[in-house]
Amino acid sequence: xxxxxxxxxxxxxxxxxxxxxxxxxxxxxxxxxxxxxxxxxxxxxxxxxxxxxxxxxxxxxxxxxxxxxxxxxxxxxxxxxxxxxxxxxxxxxxxxxxxxxxxxxxxxxxxxxxxxxxxxxxxxxxxxxxxxxxxxxxxxxxxxxxxxxxxxxxxxxxxxxxxxxxxxxxxxxxxxxxxxxxxxxxxxxxxxxxxxxxxxxxxxxxxxxxxxxxxxxxxxxxxxxxxxxxxxxxxxxxxxxxxxxxxxxxxxxxxxxxxxxxxxxxxxxxxxxxxxxxxxxxxxxxxxxxxxxxxxxxxxxxxxxxxxxxxxxxxxxxxxxxxxxxxxxxxxxxxxxxxxxxxxxxxxxxxxxxxxxxxxxxxxxxxxxxxxxxxxxxxxxxxxxxxxxxxxxxxxxxxxxx
Length: 402
Known about the structure:
globular, 2 helices, 18 strands, 18-stranded antiparallel barrel
């Protein structure tokens, strides 16, 4: 073989070619097919509206994940949402007399991204991608809605320093849950997001700076700086205690014509033992009478109640004191997992302390197999005199994911 190579190529190229032939071939994995479908019924009964909402929607995502191709990896995924029962206001279907169920019919390219891992301890991802930072309080994919939020972005994640994770993201566009037919279905952004998470013996200390210029909604252009500390205590077979505390400061940024300084504080302590759990938490978002602390790129459904009353922070701010109880079956009577949770919220204005109502949320989730799950969920908001309007929401969802 060496003589054959020497006859075919000049002597100067022998060594390089031989080394190339002898080096291991780049790792190439079999591609994975993506299938994720959710059939969901949602009902909404809202004070002040004559009609109740009944929505039966089907969301389907299909795609391909190439797996490692040497130092590269490619993913493409399409998403489709259809209405099987459409007695609701999807925000684009013209049914303004019904409560909102923000699941418009849509067919779109949900993700198309290329990742590169050729730099030590570093992953670079370019393209339309799912972005969830931390617990999605500031930037998330709004995964509860049928049409999830994705971003046209560049992301660089570095884990090459022991006990430290660094993230930088440039966001060019937010592809929002409302779809292309909604005037605010897309936002053009000029956003720089930086975060660092350091693991220490006393817990994880995180810091972040989110500089977001929204070119389609200048009032939402903000600079948000924050710090978070979280940890857990576990001793043998005893209970596990977990906790976090977080502070963030927000001001105007970029093309925002306003000037403001607002703060966010949140904290939670929880305990879990033998399948049971309990938590006590507080979220305090300031308002100055004109605007409240804003997190428009967040997975907002996960915070301040599942009834989605406070997706926009009131101008007077909001204080959310909540308690949560949970249970997970250690030996489920059917399927692979069974869990339940109840959360009780008490809301008041941060500025002035006025009553903003209360809410009870509840969920039961059953994992039937590795790929199938069933969820029953409810949110019951009792609004104060003068608003916001009271509302009850119930969901029943069947999900399959491969």
